[in-house]
Amino acid sequence: MMVIAMSIFRRWKPKGKMYSFRCFQCGSAFLSSFNLEAPICGKCIQKAKSLDSTIDNQKLCTKCGNRGVIYGKEMCYGCYFGFEKKEEALR
Fold first, then answer.
1. Are strands 55-60 and 29-32 parallel, antiparallel or unpaired?
2. Cα–Cα distance for residue pair 20/60, rounded to 1 Å
3. Selection from 47, 48, 54 nearest residue 68 by Cα
4. Which residues of 41-62 are buried (b: 16+ CB within 10 A; e: fewer)?
């Protein structure tokens, strides 16, 4: 199995420049074809994305007063992303 993986990478060559980074969250090394200003690995970016989709039902939105705000924010999805403006425009 290891021999097959080695032969694949011997033939594979990236197109363009490759950059080696250390994740500023966990410190693991990773490669990117982009020169990133704030390098973050795939695992840490997934954690950050999952926190944005988590709803805290204990808090009230500061803009509309409904329950259920985005974790770490003070507004609900509708107010944070501007959905209430789109609904008013449709009326």
1. unpaired
2. 43
3. 54
4. beebeeeeeeeeeeeeeebebe
d(CA 60, CA 30): 39
Q: How crowded is residue 24: how many other Cβ atoms within 10 Å of its Cβ?
A: 12
pTM of the model: 0.43
Half-sphere exposure of 34 (CA within 13 A, CB side): 6
Strand-strand pairing, 19-22 and 29-32: antiparallel
Which pLDDT does position 35 carry in this prediction? 86
pLDDT tens digit sequence for 32-83: 888 888 888 888 888 777 766 678 888 899 998 888 888 778 888 788 877 6
